[in-house]
Design a protein that fits this description.
By secondary structure, this protein is an alpha/beta fold. It has seven helices and 16 strands.
Length: about 230
């Protein structure tokens, strides 16, 4: 079977990664965390002859979603919908209300997701993993041995837990009991380019990422300063 199409775009001043996934046969596509440069995202979709079917959001922070942030407006999912793409925006149910307020999306624009949901994209199935810790509704997307991890797991680190809605105990559970349990050859695609490296694997992160090295919650919390 031909490998899934995946395009990793580094956009914006916060080194965000935006992802476009597509079934190589049907050309049905999904965009993950569409923000910053909607023109560039649309350009890729059009030049690669893709049919955008869905927009996924890993979590409600404006740099991944769009909206107003520190007196600046970040183009995001709302602007994508304004380009006449007939898509729904998939966000974890615990953050749907935040997303609407931050990004200017109406309830009818949103699909509220839950842990374990799956979505068909052409011949491929995308599995949604609820991974709270950075925010209450943080979610990762698993398809064809590839994990788009948002701000839950970075290459060599993990997302912050000291922002509103962060929870270090939930982060431990998401990292150790969920992501660490994936096959070691799972390719990791993070939400930011914080390491100068665009991808890794779960196996490599188990060897080198301190935040995946703990077997007890107490030790993890101590390391995090709690």
């Amino acid at each position: 079977m031909e490998s899934i199409y995946i395009k990793q775009l580094e956009l914006g001043p916060m080194q965000n990664f935006v992802y476009i996934l597509a079934d190589p046969v049907t050309r049905e596509a999904a965009v993950i965390d569409a923000a910053w440069d909607i023109d560039r995202i649309v350009q890729i979709i059009q030049q690669d002859d893709l049919r955008l079917k869905v927009a996924f959001i890993t979590h409600y922070h404006p740099d991944h979603l769009g909206g107003d942030f520190m007196n600046h407006h970040i183009p995001g999912a709302a602007e994508l919908l304004e380009r006449n793409f007939p898509v729904k925006v998939y966000v974890h149910k615990s953050e749907a209300d935040f997303v609407g307020r931050i990004a200017g999306l109406s309830p009818s624009d949103l699909v509220r997701t839950d842990a374990g949901d799956e979505l068909q994209l052409g011949t491929r199935r995308i599995r949604l993993m609820h991974t709270p810790g950075h925010t209450p509704g943080s979610q990762c997307f698993l398809v064809d041995g590839r994990l788009i991890s948002g701000d839950t797991l970075f290459i060599g680190s993990c997302g912050r837990v000291d922002l509103p809605g962060g929870d270090p105990a939930q982060m431990y559970d998401s990292l150790v009991n969920k992501l660490k349990q994936l096959p070691e050859n799972t390719v990791l695609y993070p939400g930011h380019n914080y390491s100068g490296q665009s991808t890794s694997t779960i196996g490599e992160e188990k060897l080198h990422n301190l935040y995946l090295s703990f077997n007890r919650l107490e030790d993890f919390l101590g390391m995090m300063g709690y």
